[in-house]
Specification:
With about 200 residues, this protein is an alpha+beta fold. The chain is built from seven helices and four strands. Strands 2-1-3-4 form a four-stranded antiparallel β-sheet, with helices on one face.
């Protein structure tokens, strides 16, 4: 069997491909650890493992970091698509004039794709509320602001029904179990964030 002999140009090309693949693998591993620690240890109280430290050191080597920044390799999933926010779920319970449950609506149905995309930005506002629990004055004002938004959404739903009907709006967030709990069979749950009645 004849061995394939590579010329200098082919060897150089193979070396470049190997270096690029190494940088991609290293950056992906670093970002995976970063996402894991950021999600499960939001307060920064964790002990970083050896692989995470090693990939961070390699990534922080200036030529590799510069190359990753310029090529977009350091953006992770966001390089291919927008970052996906946690999904909030609006559930509207519609009651008639005798307080009988008439209908339950999940989510808000809008006419255009653009309006649906804009409506999804509400997720970000409610996530901001969950993140910052330190500034009480800010939180009170922000809560009032979110109440106004929820009231407007409820009014939008109520327009479809007679005036003497009542709407209960419940805002939920999906609460996903940890990997350990998921392996034991625990599933995601709905966590009630806010309610409003109109």
């Amino acid at each position: 069997m004849n061995k394939i002999k590579l010329g200098k140009l082919e060897k150089l090309q193979m070396l470049i491909v190997a270096i690029i693949l190494f940088i991609i693998l290293n950056t992906a591993t670093k970002l995976t650890f970063e996402s894991y620690y950021g999600f499960y240890y939001e307060n920064g109280d964790y002990k970083e493992n050896i692989l995470s430290k090693t990939t961070s050191k390699i990534f922080n080597f200036y030529p590799i970091r510069y190359f990753s920044n310029q090529t977009g390799f350091d953006t992770g999933y966001g390089f291919f698509a927008p970052n996906v926010a946690s999904d909030f779920l609006f559930i509207f319970k519609v009651y008639d004039e005798n307080n009988n449950l008439v209908k339950i609506e999940n989510g808000v149905q809008l006419n255009t794709k653009e309006s649906n995309l804009r409506f999804q930005t509400i997720n970000t506002m409610y996530l901001d509320k969950l993140k910052d629990k330190t500034n009480k004055n800010y939180n009170e004002k922000y809560n009032k602001y979110l109440d106004v938004i929820m009231k407007q959404i409820t009014k939008f739903i109520k327009k479809k029904y007679p005036n003497n009907y009542n709407i209960d709006t419940n805002l939920y967030l999906y609460n996903f179990p940890s990997i350990k709990k998921f392996r034991k069979g625990e599933k995601e749950k709905l966590f009630l964030i806010k309610t409003y009645q109109l």
